[in-house]
Amino acid sequence: MNKEKDELKRNLEKVAEEQGGQQAVSYQDLFNPRFMQKNYD
Fold it and tell me: Annotated region Disordered: where (predicted)?
């Protein structure tokens, strides 16, 4: 499962690069548990 998650993350980062730099940050935040918790607090 970890391998699939890494692959998904790479794909998201690739898409983010194509869309522009700022998007990349939000995609990385999706994989950051602290960011997720902040949203639900």
Answer: 15-41
